[in-house]
Give the backbone structure.
Amino acid sequence: MLLAGSPCRPAGLEEYRGCGARRGGEDTGVKVPQQLGKGPSSFIPLGEILQEGVESSLRQLLIEAFVSAGRVDNITMVMGLHPQYLSSFWKTQYLLLRMDGPLPYHKRHYIAIMAAARHQCSYLVGLHMEEFLRVGGNPAWLQGLHCAPQKLRNLNEINKLLAHRPWLVTKEHIEALLKTGENSWSLAELVQALVLLTHYHSLASFVFGCGINPEEDQDGGHGCWPPSPHSDSSPASDDSMGGSGGKDAMQEVEVLMARMKLLQESQLEEEGVTQEEMATRFELEKTESLLVAPSDIADHSLQSNVLCFVEDPEFSYKDFTRRGEQAPPTFHAQDYTWEDHGYSLINRLYPDVGQLLDEKFQVVYNLTYNTIAMHCGVDTSMLRRAIWNYVHCVFGIRYDDYDYGEVNQLLERSLKVYIKTVACYPEKTTKRMYTQFWRHFKHSEKVHINLLLLEARMQAALLYALRAVTRYMT
């Protein structure tokens, strides 16, 4: 699916350690736990990150990141396994945070803090607290949401819904924020805020899904996981993924290859599945997703630097539909699409960002190296679509022209558990979940899955939010 080879090493460990805003803990007095001093990710060996992507374009991106932000952060290092995507991501985030827009810079960072706090992601909360102060934000606001202006506090409800149950967002939520008064939002401001919220909810998924380590100058190594007796946050093995799992892992690859081939052949032979059958398969997949949950979920005690930005911390993802409960209606993708509706609405109210978001969605959806594990020359479009559509399925979005039977054929249970956890409650992700699926695949392929998750999740939440804005406007 992803990178076919391992080119020459672009930088040594010393160069990597020098990329941060400061050098290691020995220079700053900050104690960095040994297990977290091994690179950007506790799931991926440092050597894998430094060896994989070395094009001059990646080097240029890392230089630009350093010049712009004063550091090459751990997210950038891991995303650098896919330079084409990193370029698109970086341009979008740069526009959201640093270019002209309706919202002042300090409020953008505060909104990022609010979004990341919903998923207990102290890594992102910490980064944006620093940035908030750097651009002149009032330090008193960082004492907690209760110290922020009422206008920002009014975002709390829609932040909560977009993070956990975006299908509940209605035009009434939009109307409440836009109503006249001293704390009202303009439509342009609100659209920028909605993009920021969904961007950072999804980025929190990436942070947890890839086991992103704290930066060396962050507080002592608590950047990713809240304390949890069940979280396996040990450093990633120094061996490549290819060496783990033995014959069973090899067999997983061959089974997946065979199923893809069979599905491709059957698509050529069959005249098509009836609409009724397609609807039944979607409902079946949606219902089965209720049973897909990590077995080692534990209660997490929120850290103080996160808790103060969260109201109603018990509110979390709830399965889109449960037996015996009144389920919200399925969101039929063709009724409100990104291409025909969301894109034009954002571009009208927040110029340029719609174009960059569209490019980012397209890049990740079409990103392929035509490889799967040790196989080359493979068409992976079917697999990428299954992952994307499964993420949308757990958020209640259905593509009427898609056969959801493919999801069951291509995504084995441990992968479904991982996808649903990272997309819906990323703070509960463990290293065990990461290692249990696709045991013979490269780390870069697992990062690719996380990029698909990030963007599919962001698009799903944006579609619900923008549909509500459209309904308010009409």
About this structure: The chain is about 55% helix and 0% strand. The chain has a mean pLDDT of 80.
